[in-house]
Specification:
single chain, alpha/beta, 3 domains, 13 strands, DNA-binding transcriptional LysR family regulator
Length: about 300
């Protein structure tokens, strides 16, 4: 029997959330579409997977049995996809690097020339991070390395080659009352509405909302942006403020946006990240060394 992995992923999220509404939102699906997927999986398996109740859905014994195997099946398939993509790109002498909107400006001709000297015949393909994927493509094997501003402890699943530690700053409309101050206190800033990145970004959304400094207090969301340009435009239009790497002060200067230092806000660790389970290749090592030799963070 062949099963679409999308159906298994949807099934797994419904089990975790315990209700279709929350699961649909997390999967960026409409509830009718998610319901259709679950029914399709039930039809293929010939079993009922959930009991519908007013409070949500309850897994049947059949669903509990399936749930015990789902993670291994999906992890195995994801690993196969990653290995396939990695083998293909290595055969093409291609390294794929993801970047944030604020980090691409750190890598230029000097970095590429240094990489080419270390890996003759190889090319680097740069791809902007996907805010709807918490791994930005590392988990699916779409990229080999990610250039990120990240918290000090990103999690045990990631390995890192850190380049520097830099401040995070506040970004706000130049007309905002707080823009009159040269230095802000994080306790005052956190009370403001924020421009957030999508919920699908997971811990990245929390990090750029200053979750660690909020001590459990929820953020006020003034707008949600789907890419870096939308984010900066929403801030400029006064829909909310935000935190960003210090480099944005220099790289995205505009008269309607103010950049201010913030006391009490933890810094970012700039570096190249990859999945710890991913074997390091000569091309990955060469790119890391090229960045260390050429990237200027001040």
């Amino acid at each position: 029997m062949d099963i679409d992995t999308r159906l298994l992923r949807s099934f797994a999220v419904v089990c975790e959330e315990g209700q279709l509404t929350a699961a649909a939102a997390r999967l960026s699906l409409s509830q009718p579409t998610l319901t259709k997927q679950i029914r399709q999986l039930e039809t293929q398996l010939g079993v009922q997977l959930f009991e519908r109740t007013r409070a949500g859905v309850t897994p049947t014994p059949a669903a509990e049995a399936l749930s015990g195997h789902t993670a291994a099946v999906l992890d195995g398939w994801d690993g196969a996809v990653r290995a396939t993509r990695q083998a293909a790109t290595e055969a093409e002498h291609l390294l794929r690097v993801g970047f944030e909107g604020s980090t691409i400006n750190l890598v230029g001709l000097a970095t590429m020339a240094e990489f080419g000297r270390r890996m003759p015949g190889w090319q680097v393909r740069m791809r902007q991070n996907n805010w709807f994927d918490v791994t930005s493509g590392l988990g699916t094997g779409e990229i080999d390395l990610a250039l990120w501003h990240a918290p000090a402890d990103l999690g045990p699943e990631y390995a890192a080659a850190r380049l520097a530690v830099v401040d995070r700053i506040a970004v706000l409309s130049s007309e905002h009352p707080l823009a009159a101050q040269e230095v802000l206190d994080v306790r005052d800033v956190l009370a403001e509405p924020f421009v957030a990145i999508p919920a699908e970004a997971g811990f990245w959304r929390d990090y750029w909302l200053g979750a660690a400094e909020r001590e459990g207090r929820p953020a006020r969301i003034g707008a949600v942006a789907h890419n870096a340009d939308e984010w900066l435009a929403a801030v400029a239009c006064g829909q909310g403020i935000g935190f960003a790497p210090e480099a944005m002060r220099r790289l995205a200067s505009r008269p309607d946006v103010a950049y201010r230092d913030v006391t009490g806000l933890s810094p970012s660790h700039v570096g190249l990240y990859w999945l710890r389970e991913r074997p390091m290749t000569p091309a990955m090592t060469a790119f890391i060394d090229a960045c260390r030799a050429t990237v200027k963070l001040t």
